[in-house]
Amino acid sequence: MTNGAYLRYVALGDSQTEGIGDGDDTTGLRGFADRFAEHLAAAGPGLTYANLAVRGRLAGQVRAEQLAPALALGPDLATVVAGVNDLLRPRFDADEVAGHLEEMFAALTAAGAHVVTVTVPDLGEIAPLARPLAPRVAALNDRVRAAAARQGVTVAEIAAQPVATDPRLWTADRLHVSALGHARIAAALAEAVRLPGSDDSWTLPLPPRAMPGRLRAAGAELRWVAGFLGPWIGRRLSGRSSGDGRTAKRPVLLPLG
C-alpha cells in the first residue's frame, strides 16, 4: 500500500470469485472481484490485480491450490471467499472448512496482506428447497467471524442484509449471484475496507416487485430442480466438477484495462 492506496490485489476462491453469473465464458466473466478491483483502481492509480479463483473448488482445494501462488504474488490486499461448495456436500464439517479458511487468513495476514472475506446469506431464503441448509450456513458464518477476529481479517457482513436474498441478486440457478449481486458484493467490500467514496448504499432494498402466485412459484421450483439441482447432483455422484480442467482466469498481477 502506498499513500493509503492498495497496489497488489489478489482474489482467492471458487465460482463466485471467478465471476459466474456476471457475463459468460464466451464474452468473459466479470464478477465481484473484478468490480472490487475497479473500486480500488478508482481510489488509487497503480493497482495490479490477479484472480486465482476456479469454479467448483472446495475450501480445502482453494487452500491447497491457490494459497502458495497468492503468497508468491506478494499482495497487500486479498479476498478469500470459499465454503459454499462445501455446504452443499453430504459430509459438511463447518470446523474443517473454517480451518482451511483460517489457514489462508493467517498466512496472508502474516505476509502483510489486508485480508477481506464475506458471510454467506441464508440459501433457504433464495431456494426454498435449500432451507435444511440454514444451520450449516449459520455454523459456517459463526466460525468465519471467529477466525477473522483471531487473524485480524475484515468481514463484509453480506448475510446480515435482507437485500442479500432478493431473487434479483441471484441467477436462475440460485447458487450464483447475478451481475447486480456481484456489484452489491463489490460495493460491500469497498465499504468494508473504507475506500474513499464508498458507503452503505449496497444494503438498500430494491424497488418492490410483483410476487408470483402459488402455482407459478411451484412451477419455478420444479424447473429449478430439473434444470439445475438435478444436473448438480449428477456431477457429484459421478465425481465430476464444473471446474475440471480449468485454471485461474487471471493468474498474474496485471493492471486493469
Model description:
With 257 residues, the chain is α/β, with parallel strands linked by helices. The protein is 42% helix and 13% strand. The chain has helices at residues 15-18, 31-43, 59-72, 84-87, 94-110, 134-151, 179-192, 214-238; strands spanning 8-13, 23-24, 28-29, 48-51, 77-81, 114-118, 154-156, 250-255. A six-stranded mixed sheet has the order 7-6-5-1-4-8, with helices on both faces. A hairpin with a 3-residue loop joins strand 2 and strand 3. Helix 2 (31-43) packs across helix 7 (179-192) and helix 5 packs parallel to helix 6 (134-151).
Offer a quick outline of the entry.
The protein is built from 8 helices and 8 strands, in the order βαββαβαβααβαβααβ. By secondary structure, the chain is α/β, with parallel strands linked by helices. A hairpin with a 3-residue loop joins β2 and β3.
Number of helices: 8
Mean pLDDT: 89
Strand content: 5-15%
Low-confidence stretches: none
Largest sheet: 6 strands, mixed
Structural class: alpha/beta
Residue share in helix? 40-55%
Shape: globular
User: How many angstroms separate the termini?
Assistant: 20 Å
Secondary structure tally: strands: 8
Could you name the key traits of this structure?
13% strand, single chain, 8 helices, alpha/beta, six-stranded mixed beta sheet, globular
Question: What layout of secondary structure does this protein have?
Answer:
Layout: E1 8-13, H1 15-18, E2 23-24, E3 28-29, H2 31-43, E4 48-51, H3 59-72, E5 77-81, H4 84-87, H5 94-110, E6 114-118, H6 134-151, E7 154-156, H7 179-192, H8 214-238, E8 250-255
Parallel strand pairs: 1-4, 1-5, 5-6, 6-7
Antiparallel strand pairs: 2-3, 4-8
